[in-house]
Amino acid sequence: MSTCAAVQEDLPELALGVLDGPTRADIVDHLASCARCRVVAEGHAATADLLALVVPEAEPPPGFLERTQVRVGQERRPQRRWRPRQAVFVVGAAAALLVIATLAAVRIVDASREGEPGSGRVHEARMIGDDDDEVGHVYATEADGQDFLFVSVAYGVPAGTYAVDVVGDDGSVRVGTMAITDGSGEWAGPTGGVRGPPRGVQLVDDNGRVICRARFAT
Amino acid sequence: MWSVSDDALLDGLATGDPDAAGAFIDRFQRRVYGLAVRVVGDPRLAEDVAQETFVRAWQRAGAFDPRRGTVAAWLLTITRNLAIDALRVRRSVTLDPEALLAVGGAAPGSAPDDLAVLTLDAIRVRQAMASLPPEQRRALAWAALAGRTAREVAELEGIPLGTAKTRIRTAMIRLREALVAEEPAE
């Protein structure tokens, strides 16, 4: 866990949205449990908001409003795969269990968010994208001595094929690829090769850039 | 519609209502296009960037978290990131962070009589930025307006990474202090 002094050095960059994914995830984890750093982060966020005003406004070309309305109307809104958080967990966990159950015999002791993946329970983590927006969910459970993952992206990720990396204590391991179409996609499979329980999951594009990332509670 | 808050307008956008979408675009188009055209320098490319901004806003409206900042800042961050990505595709274009702050000239592609419009808040922020040491102002402009990480700022300015991070952090702190000092007493 990062110290407050180290975190506060990066808070201006967090507020400006220019931190790399792994560093941002570490800081967000720290902020979740540190009220003092949250206050500092809020101050920087307020300053960053004002910076958005620095560049002057400019009148778009004639017809921009109408063309943009047409374009927005033509975009099919990706299917939202979750509703309020409690229902999301039930629906998502049920889907994850269904997929996992087809891969191996599963004995689930309890559907709970407590504990680490690998304890026989279903664990959920939010998948966060570039703009710190929630783009999907990841579910992990253990079956027959092996950890399984179910990754679901609902929207906000460009179409394409992404590597699925599982992050463990000693680094990340590539466990598969996931296709995103119309902003959404799913993947399920064993974590395999990661030492200890998985700490998180990330989707990586062809350029090695982490597009979105999920971290399990520890 | 103009009496509706930005948050409420975004909520309307999230419902998929065409009237709400039109009002949202109308409210923010000048700010979004203004940033896009300053960053990419090409009016046609800027229009593409601005349109894509509103498409993404429409797609992600339901995930906006007001605790993380204002709708305007969220939207302009999308614009900035799209503009930077568009610039990276066009490798021959060189971005000057100081040019992003220039107000004397009109935005690229605008008619000779067009004037860049600044709100009073924007003027306060620009004055506060002008009071920063040049190296801090450049570092902050690279990060805030051109979306550069501290590592990229270090490479662009030819300075160590630690120096780049310090310049960005110090500039943010001094900027906030300057803006707080300017706020009228209640």
Outline the structure in words.
The complex is a heterodimer of chains A (218) and B (186). Chain A has 218 residues and is of the alpha+beta class. Helix content of chain A is 33%, strand content 28%. Chain A has helices at 4-16, 21-33, 35-51, 64-74, 85-103; strands spanning 123-128, 134-143, 146-153, 160-168, 171-180, 185-190, 200-204, 210-215. In chain A, strand 2 and strand 3 form a beta hairpin. In chain A, helix 1 runs parallel beside helix 3 and helix 2 crosses helix 3. The longest helix of chain A is centred in the middle third of the chain and has 19 residues, at 85-103. Chain B is an all-alpha fold. Chain B is 68% helix and 0% strand. In chain B, helix 2 (18-40) packs across helix 4, helix 7 (134-146) packs across helix 9 and helix 8 (150-157) crosses helix 9. The model of chain B is unreliable at 111-116 (pLDDT under 50). The two termini of chain B are 30 Å apart.
| Mean pLDDT value of chain A | 73
How many strands appear in the DSSP assignment of chain A? 8
Lateral arrangement of strands in the main beta sheet of chain A: 5-4-7-8-1-2-3-6
In terms of DSSP E residues, the strand content of chain A is 25-35%
**Helical region count of chain A?**
5
Rg of chain A, nearest Å: 19 Å
Q: Label the structural class of chain A.
A: alpha+beta
Give the H and E element order of chain A. HHHHHEEEEEEEE
Major pleated sheet of chain A: 8 strands, antiparallel
Instruction: Please give the count of helices of chain B.
Output: 9
Tell me, what's the shape of chain A? flat
Sequence stretches where pLDDT stays below 50 over 5 or more residues of chain A: 79-94, 100-118
Strand content of chain B: under 5%
Note the run of SSEs of chain B as H and E: HHHHHHHHH
* Largest sheet features of chain B: none
